[in-house]
Amino acid sequence: MENFYLSQTRFDSFPLDERLLASLRDAGFEYCSRIQADSLPLTLAGQDVAGQAQTGTGKTGAFLVAVFQHLLNNPQPNAEAGTVRCMILAPTRELAIQIARDAESLGQHIGLRTVLVYGGAGYDKQRRQFEEPVDVLIGTPGRVIDYWKQHVFTLKHVQALVMDEADRMFDMGFIQDVRYLMRKLPPPDKRLNMLFSATLSHRVLELAYEHMNNPQKVQIEAESVRADNIVEHVYFPANEEKIPLLIGLIRQLTPFRAIVFVNTKHIAEKIDDYLRGNGISSDLISGDVRQNKRERLLKDFEAGQFQVLIATDVAARGLHIPDVSHVFNFDLPQMAEDYVHRIGRTARAGASGEAHSFACEDTAFYLPEIEEYTGKSIPVTKITNALLATDLVRPHRQQRERAGQHGGDSRPPRRNNNAPRGNRSSGR
């Protein structure tokens, strides 16, 4: 099937270093995506870019190719320890890790040194990476600021800056940290600057014009970002029908790999318990899952160790999980653009996929805004008795740390003999 995002522009049509072209070829990239084809002529000419692009459209490749070529064209010989030549900021650990993986793949032959830093893991180990000069620093704002304040590295020689998922920087409360770092860099006209965001809202553009040098806008409209090969359904269940409907759909559709999106950690835990208790292999990811477990969990999911990943919106952006066949919006998202991000986890790279959304009593009022944002009505699927699982086992409440225990495990947690006896509400 034709890849909706692919252009007819070849990477070798640009004046790229042969080592970079070799890296692209070895990574399997011959043709540019649309965002790459539109942005590279500008960035390779030294112009700043503010790009509107969703995850999965090739935006990471767009800025990595531009950064690598810029650094190759402008070497800094005899750089001292702690010197950073390029800084790439990402709002989440998962996105930073993914960017670093892509950088390793796309830069395998160019000889540039990439360093990754993020909160939640390996503080001293990450710190020691600055004992040598750094070509590309990839990190989350908090950890980058932490090391900078300790004088672990210097930003005085930065030649390129990338802000990825800029709108999420605002949503997650990182924008003051970002602005703090921007003020420590050389002037905007002394470096190549790129900003990418799902939307180029007023606040995002204000950030771009404040810290960039006359950035050129490159936009892929939200409507066109959504792949045509996602089959969408919306259901109108009562609250008590949501779990029977979810389990019934999973049983009938038998998804190869599915993501269930929810709005709260509490609901994620409840669904995880029900899926496991009813023989469906699952696990969950939320904001407070430890970093090492997140990485292990995502690897297990990609390896097929369990069928269903339950996620809050921490997983909606920046994660490149292949072969997701189905997305379930157990809760409709509060922000319309998050709907696009969520369903975009399926139908990657031209594949087909399905998105099933539950417009329940608590979230149905988000639907009109979603349909206005996407420019189309989502087909309504009637809930029949055949879709509702009626033989559900009410699970015991599971322990949250269950590494290596994916799905089908309905055993109760180990009893605490010191705990008081009697009935206990799950919410207390």
From TrEMBL:
Family membership: Belongs to the DEAD box helicase family. RhlB subfamily.
Gene Ontology biological process: RNA catabolic process
One GO cellular component term noted in the UniProt record for this chain? cytosol
Protein location: Cytoplasm
Q: How does it assemble?
A: Component of the RNA degradosome, which is a multiprotein complex involved in RNA processing and mRNA degradation.
Provide ranges: composition bias, Basic and acidic residues: 398-412
Q: Which reaction does it catalyse?
A: ATP + H2O = ADP + phosphate + H(+)
- What Enzyme Commission number(s) appear in the record? 3.6.4.13
Question: What Pfam families does the record point to?
Answer: DEAD, Helicase_C
Q: Which PANTHER family match?
A: ATP-DEPENDENT RNA HELICASE RHLB, ATP-DEPENDENT RNA HELICASE RHLE-RELATED
Q: Residues in domain DEAD-box RNA helicase Q?
A: 9-37
The job of this chain, per UniProt, is described as:
DEAD-box RNA helicase involved in RNA degradation. Has RNA-dependent ATPase activity and unwinds double-stranded RNA.
Listed SMART domains: DEXDc, HELICc
Q: Which UniProt keywords apply?
A: ATP-binding, Cytoplasm, Helicase, Hydrolase, Nucleotide-binding, RNA-binding
Enumerate the spans annotated as Helicase C-terminal domain.
229-389
Helicase ATP-binding domain boundaries: 40-218
Protein name per UniProt: ATP-dependent RNA helicase RhlB
- Span(s) of short sequence motif Q motif: 9-37
Instruction: Supply one GO molecular-function term.
Output: RNA binding
Location of the region described as Disordered in the Swiss-Prot/TrEMBL record: 391-428
InterPro entries according to UniProt: DEAD/DEAH_box_helicase_dom, DEAD/DEAH_RhlB, DEAD_box_RNA_helicase, Helicase_ATP-bd, Helicase_C-like, P-loop_NTPase, RNA-helicase_DEAD-box_CS, RNA_helicase_ATP-dep_RhlB
Coiled-coil annotation reads none
